[in-house]
Structure formats: structure tokens, C-alpha cells
Amino acid sequence: MKTFKLVSLQFIEDQDAKDIDFIDGLIINKEDEKRTWLIELFTDLSYYDYFRDVQQRDKDLEIQVIISRPENSPAYFFGHIHCIKKMESNVSVLLQGRLTNRQNEFAERLLTDLVQMGLSGEQLVREFSGNLKKRPGHPVDKIR
Questions:
Q1: Which of 15, 30, 58, 93 is the most buried (most CB within 10 A)?
Q2: How far is it, in rounded angstroms, from Cα 41 to Cα 137?
């Protein structure tokens, strides 16, 4: 296993990136055949209800992180909140996820959604191209 310092974490919700402020965090590559990673955050108690709400959702969470240094490119994960521990004035959150090739998976999900909406032909091409450009931005710009 390899452990890295977590610099930035965002949840991608409805094509928007929600910054998660944290006091400290780390990310662990379990180096298993499933490409599993663990992310642990230590954050303010004010996030407790938000994390509980996210944990209750039926679908995987899309997670964007920056590891080690702010200038690094983001890594993308799909995962879930495994455990939330409330402390006196803080919360410890453990997430489990798998590393993804986000660009390909995002495009596949987007195309599937548009086809399920009944789009085809030129309309499908226009919507697909337009929505690809609306993807959440690179969080490094917010850190600098």
C-alpha cells in the first residue's frame, strides 16, 4: 500500500464541483486488483449532516482529488462513504473508491443519458458536444 497527502477534494454533483474543506486528509492506494483507494478526511463538525445525506444516496459518488502538491493534476474516483465518526468538534470520514479514467467514463455516462432522453442524430451530437464542455473545472485554479 502507498499513502499520499490529500491536498484538495471535491464531490461532483450535477456537473458542479463541491469543494470539501478539511483540516487534514490522506489517500491510500491499496494496490489491489480492483484498483481500490481509501480516502480519510478530518473536517469540521458542520459537515456531519452533509456527509450523512451523501452516504444515504443510492448511487456512487464522483470524487475529484489532488494528491501531494497543489500543482498536480486531479485524480478521479467513483466510490462511497464507508464510515463517518463524529468527534467533539470534528468529523472523521472514510471513503472507499476506485480510480477511474474519468474522461472516458464521463463521456460514456453523458452519451447514455442523452440517448435515454430520446436524443438522436444532429441533436444528440450538439448536446453531447455542448455538455462535454460544461464538465467541472480543474480545481487547481481555486487553490492558487
A1: 93
A2: 22
